[in-house]
Amino acid sequence: MNVFRAAYARTNGDTGFTLIEMLVAMLVLGALGSIFLTTIIGAKNSATTTISEHNINEEARLALNRMSRELRQAIGVTDVRNPDGASYDPSAVTAITFAADFNGDGCIDGVAPTPAPTPAPTCQAYDAANPETLTYCWGGSSSNKQLYLIPGTLSGSTCQVSGALPILSGDVTAFKLSYRSNQYLYDANDDGITTWSELDQAGLPVGNNDGQLDQPELANIDSVVIDLTVASADGHSQSYETQVDLRNLS
Questions:
Q1: For the whole prediction, is pTM greater than 0.85?
Q2: Is the peptide bond before 113 cis (omega within 30 degrees of 0)?
Q3: What is d(CA 12, CA 22) in angstroms, rounded to the nearest whole number?
Q4: Which of 12, 22, 140, 182 has its CB surrounded by the most CB atoms within 10 Å?
Q5: Of 50-59, 102-111, 135-144, where does mean pLDDT reach its minimum?
């Protein structure tokens, strides 16, 4: 009996952890580790998303500022593809061609206006590196969803022509151009906006009632609304809209 009690006393006084205590400690540490890891991953994903949004916003802002700045200097819109309206196709090639006297010589690409003003301007020679007729073009649902700047007019059915330069690194998943006029007399539905379609339906002298945005409607277009959606490589997308008033119409 005395031997048993001595052995029991020594065993009962040993230091250390029991199996149950170790299992409980492992479960607690595992839970804390899981919470910590989840927090770290969440913070990393949040930072990545914030950076992606910032990069998209900055890139789109620069592109919209460039387009707005150039359109404000336009003396007129000369051609459009896939404008807003009943026949608008969100997957079709969309483009706007305009002319602007960027060098201030009174001419466009070295050619004096007709009829020539008095005194006649002294035209600087055409500079291929600095054209004054530009086209912004988007390829629609093609595999290359880029927004291009093209020197001159768009002669083919695609934006990927000689001299075309993408102005955004991200994919442009949507691009729509809406055309407005300050000829409020022809605002048929009294919503405060005169669209090119309302000009067209009004007939001469502001439209020709052919269902197309061409002359003479183009001569009465005073502003362009740009709707743009950009997607980054990680799949994040952002939409933007701005209205540009054409201040230098001839």
A1: no
A2: no
A3: 18
A4: 140
A5: 50-59
